[in-house]
Design a protein that fits this description.
- By secondary structure, the protein is of the alpha/beta class.
- The chain has one domain (2-249): P-loop containing nucleotide triphosphate hydrolases (Rossmann fold, 3-Layer(aba) Sandwich).
- The chain has 10 helices and 12 strands.
- The radius of gyration is 18 Å and the shape is globular.
- The structure holds adenosine-5'-triphosphate and magnesium ion.
- Adenosine-5'-triphosphate binds at residues 11, 16, 34, 36-42, 82.
């Protein structure tokens, strides 16, 4: 379970998050949606303790993130941030091995090698395994970073816009893979996603933020309505029903 209580967060005098209270009890995929600037990345980074809390408390799987040593937290929770500054002179295989660090502390064993090989295969990266990150396209690099996150083998996986830079084929492949890995390994996967149709089709639960607050949450069918899209995004769009899944027609 992720429990977030009374989180307020300011940068300077500007309130960024206001009284966030949220409990994510169920395993599965939670999509975090909301307009640019709503506070999604800030919330994710506080859950992963990339920034210290200013007030309130966040617990992940029973660990109070502000009290837990980094290495212990990294065994429980992995995060892919929206912008990454990982050094480009590292190969894809080495990057994935880096994800094993919280478990092996730099001493690579047979199990780590098997796991990395498996991840290279699953994320369609085998052919790229010896390339430097600087030699990859934006989408290939994004896939490598997500694969590294999964090599950390944590019960909680936070992904900030994992679909960034992916073409329509690889975006769908990734969502299918996330669905599969989440079910197979019984994970809590929380992902920021702007493609509302991907959230509708693949998430179990959707949490929407607006202006630094949790605006609403529910199942895709409850959440993806014409009225809610207007409230959350000022978007005037049609919502159709496609085999029982809401489908937003937003491009025309
Ligand atoms: N370092 C900073 N200094 C000042 N304001 C910041 C800083 N970082 C973020 N903000 C502000 O905090 C608010 C929330 O930002 P955040 O990155 O959490 O939004 P987001 O929901 O992830 O948006 P997006 O969909 O564009 O990624 C925004 O208004 C942003 O301008
Ligand atoms: Mg963001």
């Amino acid at each position: 379970m992720i429990s977030i209580e009374h989180i307020n967060y300011r940068i300077g005098n500007t309130p960024i998050l206001t009284d966030i209270n949220l409990t994510l009890a169920e395993r599965g995929i939670t999509a975090l949606i909301g307009a640019n600037g709503a506070g999604k990345s800030t919330l994710l980074s506080l859950i992963a303790r990339l920034q210290p809390l200013q007030s309130g408390q966040i617990c992940v799987g029973g660990l109070d993130v502000n009290q837990t040593p980094s290495i212990r937290l990294a065994q429980k929770l992995a995060i892919l941030t929206q912008s990454n500054h990982i050094h480009s002179r590292i190969t894809v295989a080495d990057l994935l091995m880096f994800g094993r660090y919280p478990h092996n502390h730099g001493l690579v064993g047979e199990e780590d090698r098997t796991l990395v090989q498996e991840a290279l295969h699953r994320f369609d990266l085998t052919a790229l395994s010896n390339r430097y990150l600087s030699e990859l396209s934006g989408g290939q690099r994004q896939r490598a970073l997500i694969a590294m996150t999964f090599c950390q083998q944590t019960e909680y996986v936070l992904l900030d816009e994992p679909l960034n830079n992916l073409d329509i084929f690889h975006a769908r492949e990734l969502m299918r893979l996330l669905r599969h890995l989440t079910n197979e390994q019984n994970l809590h996967t929380v992902m920021v996603v702007h493609d509302i149709n991907m959230a509708a089709a693949y998430a179990d639960h959707i949490v929407a933020m607006k202006d630094g607050k949790i605006a609403m949450q529910g199942t895709p069918t409850e959440m993806i309505t014409e009225e809610n899209l207007l409230t959350l995004f000022d978007l005037d769009a049609d919502v159709l029903n496609h085999n029982g899944v809401p489908l937003v027609v937003h491009h025309i």
